[in-house]
Amino acid sequence: MSANDHVAKGNASFEKYFNDGTPELISNCYFPDSILTHLASKQSYKDNQSIGQFFKNALHDGMKLRNLKLTSLDVKQLDPTTIYELGEVTGTLPEDKPFSGSYAIIWKLDETDNTFKIKYDTF
After folding, report:
1. DSSP state, residue 26
2. Fewest C-beta in 10 Å: which of 12, 37, 60, 121?
C-alpha cells in the first residue's frame, strides 16, 4: 500500500468512529503513548484514551460537531515506518454552520498489526 492508501484507511476509521456516534473509539487510531496538541485550547493529551475522550467531550458532545470529514492535502512517506500528513477537517455545527480547521499528523507503523496509527496529532 502507498502512504496515501495507509492514511486514507486510517482517516476512514477515524471518520467512522466519530460519525457513528462513538468518538471515544477514536482512541483505536492512536498509540497508547500518542500525543494530541489542540492549539485552540492550548491543551495536550498524552495517551490514546485521553485523546478519545477529548474528541467525545469537546467536539462531539460539546460543540455538537457532525458530518466530520478529513481531507488530506499533503502526504509524505518519511521512511518505511513514518508518514506525515497535512490535512483539513470539515463538518457541521448546530444550525448547519460549517466547521473547518487544519491538522498535521505523524503516522507510525504499528508492527503488532502492520497498520499505521497516529503518533502525533496537532490541530
Report:
1. G
2. 12
DSSP H/E element including 60? none
Give the pLDDT band of residue 59 (cuts 50, 70, 90): confident
Rg, C-alpha atoms of the chain: 14
Hey, CA dihedral for 45, 84, 72, 18, is it positive or negative?
Answer: negative
Contacts of 116 (CB under 8 A, 6+ apart): 6, 7, 9, 10, 83, 107, 108, 109, 110
Give yes or no for a contact between 72 and 4, defined as CB atoms under 8 angstroms apart: yes
Beta strands in the chain (DSSP E): 30-38, 43-45, 66-79, 82-93, 97-110, 115-122
> CB 1: neighbour CB atoms within 10 A?
11
